[in-house]
Amino acid sequence: MDTLVWTIAFGEQTAQVAEDGDVSGDADLVTLLQEKLREPVTVYRRGTVSAREGEAPVSIELRPGDGRYVVARIRTLCDGQSHFEIAGCDWR
Q: How are the residues of the chain apportioned to helix, strand and coil, as percentages rounded to the nearest 5?
């Protein structure tokens, strides 16, 4: 089965994060991302990283090991309010 892999940039550093949680790439960024991938994340049924304006927020808290956790964590890490950005997305 193919695995979705995001390339995450943080300044000049890059790392690859697979949907199964595997992280590879620049050693310092790998360490930082592994720490970030242990944090719970709250997402919303509508709007994903924040509730849609004017709607009551219906949140879901995901933890490492939950089926959708890595996807949600990548979206929240790269939401435009941090220095992380998605530089690419491929299948492995």
A: 20, 35, 45
Nearest CA-CA partner of 22 in 77, 87, 54, 70:
70
Q: Is 30 left (phi over 0), alpha (psi -120 to 50) or beta?
A: alpha
- Best CA proximity match to 77, nearest among 17, 1, 2, 3: 17
Per residue in 25-38, pLDDT tens? 999 999 999 999 99
Residue 48's DSSP bridge partners are 44
Lookup: tokens for 73: 């964590």
In angstroms, the CA 64 to CA 62 distance is 7
pTM: 0.79
